[in-house]
Design brief:
Blueprint lengths: L7 H12 L22 H20 L9 E3 L5 H9 L6 E4 L5 H17 L4 E5 L22 H12 L3 E6 L9 E6 L6
Parallel strand pairs: 2-3
Antiparallel strand pairs: 1-4, 3-5, 4-5
Helix pairs in contact: 4-5
Pfam family, one: Smr
Organism: Lysobacter koreensis
Protein name: Smr/MutS family protein
Length: 192
């Protein structure tokens, strides 16, 4: 018989003759398996997610609307002084206008402004945040969040409440800007 496609055994014999003697390789251990993933604290992750949601809901409940006044007083401030601030009887020594600023820019401007006022011994400042009635949609940085609440106004409220050097603040009387501006009483600088 002739070698070819009709006789596969001849092809096998030819292959073995061409290759020569073969020896079997020693058996090797199989490759290591991928390491098992580290255990996760799934309950802790769920608890943290629930706490974040609860915190967000608490923040949402405290957000101010366009016509809501900003108001805050530390217990150490006498009520009479707070009433004078509320009526606009305390003159602002410096003023910051945040109109047209994006959220990040407004936050940086406000922080720098308050730090500078504190360093220079300024006792009362006015911050104009606007009521959030006109949009900035062309810049993609709208003054309202998804719920239609004014962003800059709520940003100012949150930042002022967190600072230890703020004694009190209240939205200005209508003649001074109404709920679009806030008068802020700063604590005097500490003497060394």
């Amino acid at each position: 018989m002739a070698a070819g496609p009709d006789n596969p055994e001849d092809d096998l014999d030819l292959f073995r003759a061409a290759v020569g003697p073969v020896r079997k390789l020693p058996e090797t251990a199989p490759p290591p398996r991928a390491p098992k993933p580290k255990p996760r604290a799934r309950m802790a992750e769920r608890d943290e997610a629930a706490a974040r949601d609860e915190f967000r809901h608490a923040l949402d409940a405290s957000l101010l609307d366009t016509d809501d006044p900003l108001a805050y007083r530390r217990d150490a401030l006498p009520p009479r002084l707070y009433q004078r601030l509320k009526r606009g009887e305390i003159a602002a020594q410096e003023e910051l206008d945040l109109h047209g600023a994006g959220t990040r820019q407004a936050e940086a401007l406000l922080r720098d402004f308050l730090n500078g006022a504190r360093q220079h011994g300024v006792g009362c400042v006015r911050i104009i945040h606007g009521k959030g009635l006109r949009g900035q949609a062309s810049r993609g940085d709208a003054p309202f969040d998804g719920s239609g609440l004014p962003v800059l106004k709520n940003l100012v409220d949150r930042m002022l409440r967190q600072r230890a050097d703020i004694l009190a603040f209240h939205s200005t009387p209508p003649a001074q800007g109404g709920t679009g501006a806030v008068l802020v009483l700063l604590a005097p600088p500490k003497r060394r």
